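Fig. S4 source data, part A: sequence.
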Amino acid sequence: MTTAEQTLAPLGPLPTTVRGAQRTLDELWSQTDIETRAYTGNIIALVSPRHQDRVRAALSGLEGRFAGRQIIAVMEPSASGRMSIDAELVPQKGLYIERLTLLASPGQLRGAVLPLLRSATVNHVWWASDEPPAGPLLTELANVADQVIADTLRLDIPPTFQYALADLGWSRSAAWREALAQLFDSLDAVAALPRVTELKLWSDGRNDRPARLYAAWVASKLGWTNLDAVTFVRGSGQRQAGDLCGVELSGPGGVNFTLKSDGPELVQTRVRFDKVDRVTSMMVPSMTLAEGLARVMARPERGGTFEDAWTLARASLAGDAQPKSGAP
């Protein structure tokens, strides 16, 4: 730990207003010995009251290079009267990050968030609520966004050229995509790939949407036009909720490519076809919410890979059954 990280202490929170927010932040900055501020962007997190602690923890795990100003907009539909706004400086990785926390109804937030954005920087909009947006709040913020981060399948937000669309479930399965690709590093494994006819996925928790995006990615690579050959199974709880914990590609003649979670970081793999039977292990660590958030902010999705997967996954949701139960 550096000296700066040891000595920086949180400053605030102080109550303020939309018009007075910058002045309040300047007053907090004047209490520091720091002359250079991190003008690296804005992240606006729209969240319900019951999830605000989780969102605060995730934002606290970011580095200043991703967003120097954090705006946490807590949507309280029953809020009435004057909204509350608090300003504070939060230490992160030896730097101070500006944080503004608003508590108001979605209608009140419509006119409050835009004036608080630092101009001439990148805008990340994160819909961190489990509830679909009601009203024009998200649409209005998306109009000024460079990136929108959301549970895209739950909210039914399709990819667009207007902004980079990011899905945290997709981001957090990146290591599993890389691990599966490694099973096909050899030419003989690639030659066996056309014989794969079925895919089974295990994921922890009740949310199978990240697994569905992963399945759609595999299907698009195999040239499948739907997810009819995919089975979703509820895992054994070794990973975080929503995370993958097992993948199996199989086909006639004993063709089988398997990734099986062995704890929170290790994955056991097995490749079988013809006379080949290879067993190995690799590190596929679970990704925290903060790590997933940092990844999508650092590397916004552009191009057809996510779009193709999203289209297949979205089409598969109509009338699909809930995941079965069973350990991989």
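Fig. S4 source data, part B ends here. The chain has a mean pLDDT of 87.
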